[in-house]
Amino acid sequence: MLRPLSSRPLIVFLLLALPLSHVFATHFRAGEITARRLSLSSPTYEIKLTGYFDMIGGIGAAQAQNDVVFTINSTDGTGDPEFVTAPRIPPIVDIGNNTTQNVYIAIYTFRTAGAYRISVEEDARNDNVLNIGPKPTNRLNFYVSTTLEINAAFGLNRTPVLRNAPIDIAAVGQRYIHNPAAFDADGDSIAYRMFVPQQAGTNGRGINLEYQDPNTVTPPGQTETGASPATFSINRVTGDIIWDAPVTKGYYNVAFIVEEWRDGALIGQIVRDMQIIVEDARNDRPVLTPLQDICVEAGTLINQKVVATDKNGDKLTLTSASGLYDATLITPPLATFNVANQGAQGSVTGTFTWQTSCDHIRLGSYNVLFKVEDGPPPTYPNPSLFMKLADMTSFNIRVYGPKPTGLTGTAVTDPGGTAYRLNWDAYKCQIPNAKIVIYRAEKCTEIEEDVCEPGIPAGSGYEEIGRVDVNQTTYLDNNGGEGLRPGVSYSYRIAVIFPRPGASPGDPGYLIGGGKSLASAEYCLNLPMAMPVITNVTVDSTSTIRGQITVKWIRPAVTTGVPAQYKLFRATGQNGSAFTEIASINTNLTPGAADTLFVDKGLNTEANAYNYKLEYYTTVNGQLTKFDETETASSVRLEQGAAPSNQVGLKWTALVPWDNGNRVHRVYREDKTKPGTFNRIAEVSVTGPQTFTYVDDGKDKYAADGTVDVSIVKDSTYCYKVETVGSYNNSQIRPSVLYNFSQILCVSSSDTTKPCPPVLSLDPLNCDSLRAHPEAFCTTSGFTNHLTWEYPAELDGRECDPLVTAYRVYYARYEGDAPTLIATVTTPPSPLQTSFDHEGLTSFAGCYFVTAVNRFGSESAPSNTVCRDNCPMFVLPNVFTPNGDNKNDTFQPLECPAFVQSLEFKVYNRWGAQVYSTKDVNINWDGKTNGGKALAAGQYYYEVTIYFESFTKQGTETSMKGWVQLLR
C-alpha cells in the first residue's frame, strides 16, 4: 500500500496519542532491510525487514508490531518520499537468548531507475545503552536503511541476505564474535565496514547518533589471551566483528554496512544495526576448531568435519548458517549439516555435506558459518541462570569449472596462409551462455596450475585469440585472416568462463562474477617451415684481407613455388644494417643439393664482425617473387675483457635468432709450441642471451685433448678463439645443436698499462623549460642525452695508460640491467673525442658508464655510473561532456602525458562509491561504469596512481587526487 506524503504526520499524531508506556516500549534489538527484484519488465521489488525483538519485558512488544512502514526516496534527495506499509509475515519465531525474529514484507514498484534509500524507523531502543546518545536511549528510535541501485542491466538482482541472527551474548573478559553470514545469490562481491548507528531524520534520512566505540566506553582492558589493549574491529573481507574483550557489562549498540559490488561499482549497501549485551559469565565460551578454505571442481562431493569443544564440559549445540541451505538462493542440490551427538557435553562433531554441480560454478566463494553455543550441563544447579556463550568460524568454498579435455589440432589450408583447426571434447558443464576461451602462445609453455585461481594466469605468455559457445568443440585459428607464421612452435590452451548466476547475455558484464574452469592441457604444434632459417655464421679464418665466414641455412619444408631462389646479404658489424647482396643461389629444393651453404671470402675478420640475412623468392605466375626474409644472424665476436694481473679476460657476443644461452661454450688457446694449433682449455656454462665471459689463468681445464698449461706473464701475447653452442629449440630445425666459431683474438696481459676508468657526467635537464613547451612531449622519439667525460692521468697513485685508443659507451635502460655497448668513440685520432650524444631516445631515463681501451685492446673498469630520470608531465582537466557530439566526450590528460609507464585510475561518486577504474595511460573515460552504465551528470572524484618512466624498473610513483565535473 502506498501512503502519500501528507499522510505521514498522521502516523506521528497517532503515535503521540498512544500511552507513553507503548511509545517508549523497549523491544527493537536489531534489524536490516533486504530486497530482490521480481520482474525484468518493471522495477518491482520485494522489500523485507528482518527485525529482532528483545523479550526481556515479555513477547507482547513483538506481537504488537503488526506492520512497519518503509520510507523510499532517491539518494540525491530529489522528489517526494513514498511510504509503503509492510505487514508482518507469521509466525513470530523465538530464536533464543530472549529474542524473537519478526519478518515484514512489502511489494513495491519503483518510479524510475536510479539510486534509492529504503529506510524504516520504530520507537524505541532499549534504555541504558552505554555507547550511544543522547540519553536516555529509550527516547531514541531504531532506524536502519538500505541503498539500492535500480538498473535494468542488473537483471533480477538481489541484495545479499544475512543468514546469522545477531543474538549472542558477550562475556566480560572473553572474546566475542559476530558474523552476519552474508550470502549473495547473484555472485556479487561483498565487503564490510563499520557504520555509526542512526535515528530517523526528515524524508527518510538518517541522523548519526552520539556514538562511541564500545571498546572505549571504559578504559580497555586485555584480550582474552592477556594481550593489551583489548580490541574491537570488523574484517572488511570476512565480516567478522570481534571484540576481544569487553570490560564492562551492559548494553552496547553498533552498526555495520554490507556492501554489494559488481563490475567495480557499488550497487547496493545494507545497514545492520545490532545490540551487543555484555554480561558477567561464570563459564568459559566454547571453541570451534578453525577450518581451511577449499577450492573444488564442480561435481565434487564435500564432506567437512566441524569440531567444537568446551573446557568446562558444558552441553553444546552446533549449528550452521549459509545460503547453501536455501533453494531460493542457489540451484539444488543443497548442502546439509548434521550433528550426530548434538547436545553432548564437552565436544560435538558435525558434518557439512554438499554435492556440488556445474550450476554452482562462480567467481566468488560460498560462505558457510558454523556456530557453537554452550548450555548448562545436567548437574547445573539452576539452568535458567546459565549464561549461554558462543563461538563462530567461517568456511569458504570456491567451485571452479572442470578442465576441458582432448585439445588437438590439424593444419588446414586457408586463404590467408597457414591455419590450424583446433578440436576438443564436448565440455562437461553445459551452462547456458558460458563461453570457451581459446588462448595461444608462441612457444611450448608450461603454466603453474592453481585450483583456487582457475583460468590462465597473468604473465604466462598466453593471449586470448577467440571465444566460442560452450557447446562448440572446434575453432579455426588463422591469425585473424593473416595466417600463422611458419617455423613457430604454437601452444594452445582453452578454458571456460561462466555467466554470473541469474545473468543473461543482455546484462553488461554478465560473464563477470560467473567463475572459470581450469585451463586445459597444452597442445603444442610446429607449423611446417615455409621459409629457410639461418643456422650458422662461423668464422673459418682470421685475417685483415683474407678472412672467411661460412653461412648455412636449412631448406623450407614447404616445397610449393619452385623453382626458388635464395639471396644472401651482408652488413659490417654485429648490429650492421647497411646490407649488400653477396650471393644469389637458385634452387628446386632438391634434397642433397649443395644450395644451403655459402663461404664468404676476402673479409677483414680481424677488425670486424659481420651480420647476415637471407631473402627467399618463390615462383608466382612464372615470376620469381619475394616470399619473405629471415631474421639477421651475426658472427661471433671475441674481445678482451677485464682480468686480474697475469690473467687474460675474454668476452664474446653473437646476435643471432637462435638461443646461445643456457649452454656450454668452448674456449680455445693457441699452443705456442705448435703455431696455428688451438687446444681447448675450458668449457664455459653460460646463461645470458648475448654476452659471455671467461678469465684465463693459464690452466688448461679441459683434459680430453691433452693438457697444455702456460704461465701468463706481463706483455706476452696469447691467442684465443671461442666456439658458441646454441639451438632454436625447434624439432623441425636440424641439426638441433648449432656450433659457431669466433675470429682469433691475440691479446696481452699487462698490469702496468691497463687504462683507468674515465669520469662521466651528463648535461642536466631543464624540466621547467621543457614543461613550458608541452608540445615537445607529443613526439615519441627525438630526445637526446649529452654525455661528457674526462680521462685521469693517475688513479690511486698509479699512472694511467696514456695511450688510449678508444672509449666505449654503455647504456642500460634500467638500473641493474646488463649494460649494452651503444658506441665506440675513436675519432678524431688526436686528441680522442670525450663526448657523445645519445640520440633518438623515447625517454631521457637510463644509466650510462664509459670505459677506456688501450692499444692492446685492454678495457678499463667502468667509469662511475650516471643515471637520469625524466621530466614527467601529467595534467587532467576538471570538466568533460560525454554527450556524443565528438567534442570533449572522454576524460583524458591535457596535452601529451609525458613518460607515463603505467597508471591506475579510479573514479568515485559523491557517496564514495567507486564507479569506474582503468589502467589505460590515456584514461579515455566515457562517463560510464566499467559495465557500460551511463553515469548521471554531476561532480565525481578521482584518484590516480601514476608510475612515470624512470631509470628504475618499478618507475617513479606519484599519486594525484582531484575532481571532475561530468556534464551532459
Description:
It is a single chain. The protein has 968 residues and is mainly β. The protein contains 4 helices and 66 strands. The strands form 17 sheets. Strands 1, 2, 3, 4, 5, 6, 7, 9, 11, 14, 20 and 21 form a 12-stranded mixed β-sheet that branches. Strands 39, 40, 42, 43 and 44 form a 5-stranded antiparallel β-sheet that branches. A hairpin with a 2-residue loop joins strand 5 (82-96) and strand 6 (99-109). The protein is elongated. The two termini are 37 Å apart. Residues 1-26 have low confidence and may be disordered.
List strands and helices in order, with pairings.
Layout: E1 2-3, H1 8-16, H2 20-23, E2 28-37, E3 44-54, H3 60-64, E4 67-74, E5 82-96, E6 99-109, E7 114-122, E8 132-133, E9 142-150, E10 161-162, E11 170-171, E12 176-178, E13 182-183, E14 189-195, E15 198-200, E16 206-208, E17 210-211, E18 231-234, E19 241-244, E20 250-262, E21 265-279, E22 287-288, E23 294-297, E24 301-309, E25 315-321, E26 336-339, E27 347-355, E28 366-375, E29 390-400, E30 408-414, E31 417-423, E32 435-441, E33 463-469, E34 474-477, E35 489-497, E36 523-526, E37 533-541, E38 547-554, E39 564-572, E40 580-587, E41 597-603, E42 610-620, E43 623-629, E44 633-634, E45 637-641, E46 648-653, E47 664-670, E48 678-685, E49 692-696, E50 717-726, E51 738-741, E52 745-748, E53 759-762, H4 767-771, E54 783-790, E55 794-795, E56 798-799, E57 804-812, E58 820-825, E59 835-841, E60 846-854, E61 866-868, E62 879-880, E63 900-908, E64 914-918, E65 938-948, E66 956-966
Parallel strand pairs: 11-21, 23-29, 62-66
Antiparallel strand pairs: 1-5, 2-3, 3-6, 4-5, 4-7, 5-6, 7-9, 8-17, 9-21, 10-13, 12-19, 14-20, 15-16, 18-19, 20-21, 22-24, 24-27, 25-28, 26-27, 28-29, 30-31, 31-34, 32-33, 32-35, 35-36, 37-38, 38-41, 39-40, 39-42, 42-43, 42-44, 45-46, 46-49, 47-48, 47-50, 50-51, 50-52, 53-54, 54-59, 55-56, ...
Protein name: Gliding motility-associated C-terminal domain-containing protein
Pfam family, one: CHU_C
